[in-house]
Amino acid sequence: MHIAGHTPDAPHPRGDSVEQSAAISPSVTEIESLKAQLLEARKQATLGELLGTTTHEFNNALTTILNYARLGIRHPDKETRDKALNRILSASTRAAKITASVLSMSRSHRSSNRMEPVNLVSLTEEVLVLLEREMMKYRVQVEREFSEVPKVLANPGQLQQVLLNLLVNARQAMPDGGRLILRIATTPARQSVSLLVRDMGCGMSREVMQKMFDANFSTKAGPDETGKGGTGLGLTACREIIESHKGRIRVESSIGKGTGITIRFPSLRPVAAAG
Ligand SMILES: Nc1ncnc2c1ncn2[C@@H]1O[C@H](COP(=O)(O)OP(=O)(O)OP(=O)(O)O)[C@@H](O)[C@H]1O
Ligand SMILES: [Mg+2]
């Protein structure tokens, strides 16, 4: 980024122009502080979205439990009771998974800057638990292609945030539903671990692709009924976070066919070539 400085021996402009030149020439520290503010704002937004999503997901499990408990009480025959108990068991197992996910996320958001060895597969599963119902509602079929991969050095809270945004973007690109492929694999040539999020959605034009990482750039009218999308900070924050992890992000997209976004992180263990 080019940072314009103020030449000391240039004739000193007066009034407006001084203010203007100060405004268009932020110092490196100012830029860093703005970046930090942006990341913090986006993190708060993610936490807000998460709160909405998990409450919905949890309520859904609770409704199932209540309904089947009522059914079991109303119909004392063994067959109905067994069926009711089984449904209650699976709904409560799901509710327990949701709370475990939320607890893990709030833990990682509290230790905000700590880097630790992270297993991308389990982190992705945790995020998926929270989006399961939302994906079902929009008829998005999530296909997992997960290999066993070495850990990467990362801040789990920030990675969850990246993943949430990529998954929500993919879902929003397919308003009529479709397949969402998640692939986690190693790339021996680069000694890296990668995560691909591929949707079969609307895709992006060249113009959108050029601007997608810009702060506040969004083609969405505003938050959808799940309260997500439209701030235009999602990918901006993703890129900031990935760069701070010495990772890479690559986007491929074609209009009407879909988008594939690969994020890649240095592996903590040497990655051997297959075969
Ligand atoms: N998977 C995708 N398919 C099609 N377009 C996409 C996809 N991901 C991102 N985009 C485009 O890039 C824009 C910027 O994405 P970004 O995630 O930064 O913002 P947003 O989703 O609009 O809002 P939010 O900040 O709330 O996430 C989107 O508005 C959309 O036009
Ligand atoms: Mg987004």
The total beta strand count reads 7
CATH-defined topology: Heat Shock Protein 90
> What is the molecular shape?
globular
What does the radius of gyration come to? 23 Å
- The proportion of residues in beta strands is 15-25%
What helical percentage do the residues reach? Answer: 40-55%
Counting structural domains, the number is 1
How is the largest sheet built, in terms of strand order?
A: 2-4-5-7-6
How far apart, in Å, are the first and last alpha carbons? 43 Å
H/E series: HHHEHEEHEEHHEE
Model regions low in confidence, pLDDT < 50 over at least 5 residues: 1-22
The CATH superfamily is Histidine kinase-like ATPase, C-terminal domain
CATH-defined architecture = 2-Layer Sandwich
Question: What can be said about the biggest beta sheet?
Answer: 5 strands, mixed
Number of helices: 7
The first-level CATH class name: Alpha Beta
Bound molecules: adenosine-5'-triphosphate, magnesium ion
Briefly note the structural class of the backbone: alpha+beta
Structural summary, described in words:
By secondary structure, the protein is of the alpha+beta class. The chain has a single domain, classed as Histidine kinase-like ATPase, C-terminal domain (Heat Shock Protein 90, 2-Layer Sandwich). It has helices at 16-24, 28-74, 78-110, 120-137, 156-172, 206-211, 234-244; strands at residues 116-118, 140-146, 152-154, 178-187, 192-199, 248-254, 258-266. The strands form 2 sheets. A 5-stranded mixed sheet has the order 2-4-5-7-6, with helices on one face. The longest helix has 47 residues, at 28-74. Bound molecules: adenosine-5'-triphosphate and magnesium ion. Magnesium ion binds next to α5. Adenosine-5'-triphosphate is lined by residues 165, 169-170, 173, 199, 201-204, 208, 212, 217-220, 229-236, 259.
